[in-house]
Amino acid sequence: MTTSHELNARFSCDGLRFEDAPNGLVRALIETPQAQGEVYLHGAHITRFQPAGHAPVLFLSEKSQFAPDKPIRGGVPLCFPWFGPRADDQSAPMHGLARLVEWEVESVNCDETATQIVLRYAPTTKPYPAWPTCQLRYAISFGAALQMRFEVKNVGEKAFAFEEALHTYFQVGDVRQIEIEGLGETRFLDKTRNLQEDTQFHRAFGISGETDRIYLDTQAACTIHDAVYNRKILVSKENSATTVVWNPWSAKAAAMPDFGDDEWQKMVCIETCNVNKCEVELQPGDKHVMTAKIDSERL
What we know:
The protein is mostly beta strands. It is built from 2 helices and 23 strands. It starts with a helix and ends with a strand. The strands form 4 sheets. A 9-stranded antiparallel beta sheet has the order 6-7-8-9-23-19-18-13-16, with no helix packed on it. Strands 5, 11, 12, 14, 15, 17, 20 and 21 form an 8-stranded antiparallel beta sheet that branches.
């Protein structure tokens, strides 16, 4: 594994440096006039985004296990090539392998408006028998907004299907006092009711219990209206046909070893994704790109 010293020698610039993190992990620290951020090479995992003058936008659990064989709880986990449990192998890691492997730094670019780090993952051997023959590239830009661009390229001789998600955890003042706007008149699968299909009729809705919904066939932007922090967070996206909204609520949070018992009150996930009925099929030589942009605005 490349060391932080080697990475700094090759890639550091004004506003970005690499450092050693606990348990042998390496992270990039971003500190510019526009924003502060943090990215772990383990799982290409964004753990911090805080625009200047704002409260942190991303939630990170105080119980998160920063270990090479475990996912990080919070921030922006990257789910690929499946979402949730793997249907044909219940022993496979939840949400795929991309968030459990070590990514390489491809490039870094720093300018007056944003600092971008580009990560890649192109294993020479399959990390899992069902891993598709592909190359992954993930560009993350920290500026007044957080921008993410996830690219999958089929470098094999056969088509393959996959699911993907930018499983973003947002920090909120109190999840019981937020409203989520942008999913009105949209069908969803309710995972708390065995994937029963329903429709979100209201323009905006709140969270009042365990919530785990897959909104289908939607490219719409979503806005979190946060009455406690007196701000709104806008999540816009491209080439994403599903949006997942998740909060574990109290009972499920208490059962999770890497999640504080009361932390469910301070977070909500709005996930940019292509999952379930909207999985992606990629032909040999083709490339698929999914993007998300996160803006924070004080009210």
